[in-house]
Amino acid sequence: MPSPLEPARHAGLARVAQKAARMEPDDAHGLDERDLAASWLEQFERWQAEFTAAGAHEPTAMVLATAASDGQPSARTVLLKGVDDRGFEFFTNLDSRKGRELEENPRASLVFPWYELQRQVVVVGAVEAVDAARADAYFASRPYGSRIGALASRQSSVIADRGVLERARAELEAVHPPGRAVARPEHWSGFRVLPASVEFWQGRANRLHDRLRFRREADRWLVERLSP
User: Which pLDDT value is given to residue 67?
Assistant: First the structure.
């Protein structure tokens, strides 16, 4: 017997298909070497500002890919919390899967999936830990609930049910009520991806996309066009 939810589900899928059709790349907006900023940082900030202006829900969301020492990869979405000419910063529980993998194999790739503008930015590079002062400053800037959550969650570990988290949160809120300082735990800090390459990908018609890559070579950055 068909589910009463089937019509709504099919209507939802139709809307997704219609949106995808509207996002089919065309040649109205290409990426030419003459229009590229002088540095990867300037180009990234320009594109991120344009994505934000387009009404993006999470303009700092990025896919972080890491790999264990045996080569097994994993990926997840995290939020960019800082970018400068050194690289891209994010914060996490060091005991999480990504934290453990970055300890074993300090290399990563980032993807900024800016679908609404038919763009993506792909970063590849080594990873370093941020210093304690930077981690402390960012942790202190987080909302109260997020700081409690960082203490309550043993990220990536198996738990029996949702109640485990709720009980841990309640216990911590009793110890650290709102308005009282919540210190950064030792197992929580940040990383910085130091780019060896930053690729700017612009969708074009017929899968003939524009791909321009800044690649570090010794003490300078080269700009290269990649075949799609």
Answer: 98
